[in-house]
Amino acid sequence: MTGVRRSKTKRERTATFLVLGGIGLLGNLTNSGVRCFAIGNNEKHHMRHHPNSSTNAPLSKRRRQNSIINNSNNLYHSKSLANPSVVGHTNGHDDGMYPCRGGHALRATRQAGSADGENIPDASAMDGAKKPEQGLWPCMDKMDKELIKISLPVIGNYAIGPLIGAVDLFWVNRMGNALAVAGQAAANQVFSSAFWFVSFLPSVTATLVAKQHAKGNKEATQDAICQALFVGFFIALIGTPAMFFRADGALSSVLPKGAPAMAYAKPYLMIRAFAFLPSLISLVGFSAFRGILDTKTPVKISAFANVFNALLDPIMIFTLAMGVPGAAMATLAAEVISALIYLGLLRKKQLISWGKLVRPPSWASLKPLVKGGAALQLRNLSLNLTFLAVARVTQSIDQSGVAAAAHAMAIQTFQIGGIVLLALSTVAQIMVPNAMVERVDEETKASVGGLMHAKATANRLMGWGFVLGCALGSLQILLLPAMFKATPLQEVRDAAKLPAVIASVLQIINGLVFIGEGIMIGTGSFLQLSLSTLTATLGCLWALWFFPPKVGLTGVWLGFGVFNLIRLAGVYIHQKINGPLSLRKIAAKVKTT
Is this structure's pTM higher than 0.70? Predict the structure, then answer.
């Protein structure tokens, strides 16, 4: 009992350390400019604080300044992130929009930019791209409420998958065979890795659909979805037979030759191979709905299909005595149901056309998808290489399956906390491109959107990512005892303790990385994201070579830490130095226009 109390006290102390450390880092980041967005709207107040707005200035100069400020204000007055049709414009103060502002002025001074640590040109060089004064972090103003409204259904959708995965893991663990758990984990990793090769489809599709939907172009929106499905059909015709007939070769990427877990992994993977096409349909359908800012429908579909999967698991595994293949059959059934529902709803909402699905698209219409997909493919290859290397190193630590089973448990801990952050990443992929489109509201005839509004949205998302990363990491540490009850094997619990703690701590970094990379996808910075991920993969491969021989499974998770730290550096470079939403690039773009 003394050991249990000491362990509990240690977990509480670690969680407290994460929270306090997060608050301290939050303050530092706030001072360094990673702050949420808030501006005042009073144009006279803007003029009063503008360094070049002296009343002694020539009349022509004052008129030019007024024009710049008025045009710039049009980029900021978005009253809804989720629905452009309700966006309004006002020339007075709108304290309901940003009640947590740090001040009440929109400043365009060199000093305001320098305070954020960026080398920003002076006001004349900015030529209207004002540096907004930013308030504190998420404070439940209207922007936060809109983000939460969109994010909650996406979080729910992402939560369902890992929770059902936890149910699968629970029932396979009930078999009391560590090799069965290791085999299922290996097969799942291979299937996921193969699927990641085409995961550019949902990422690019969501961005393209969001842009066309923001413009109100229904035909182009339908084209983007149908083209993604057409490409998905073609890929599945190759992927499914390749995975079915070459299961041994695919599994050799994660399992050493003669590994005992192969007997469980092979039949599982052969069955899951048939889920390739329905999984692609579901992902494209999910991307299409969130691209049009409908995030509730995918949750309902996913919930229905996965509850069906959860009900089938014990029947297939134990009642019908199918074992691990039974878990694969239950998952396949859920994927087929999900795909059929998506196709039916997409057709009902006229987001797809049967004629376009069977007709090869023209190169001109397919080019944006192919161009973005080709750039993201390098990222997907890098991610796959990382996860396959992690799986292979984990499987090679011991032949008993204990390390692999413990790693699967740590991954489950990691995923349950990470789903919230991953959901916000996908929200960033649709919110940022939607905010970047400068357009005229049909009802108010006011100009909405633009680069500065997109930057405001990105800043707020990053703030949410950091806060939630700290909170989720702390919560995961406190819930570890409940997680460990998923397996009856004490040796697996012991091996999973430290990796699970590391996985929880890494959520702080993940909050910034996941959302930052979602912003990169939303801005169309596909190649830069891919190069950043490739660099992180090289660092992770070195860490997997260096750490595991010394500290075992813990070294694998230290490799994950190296991987995400390098990705975080890539996010920083994109947002502060060379990304389209960096103040330097915004100033240059406004100046040219």
Answer: no
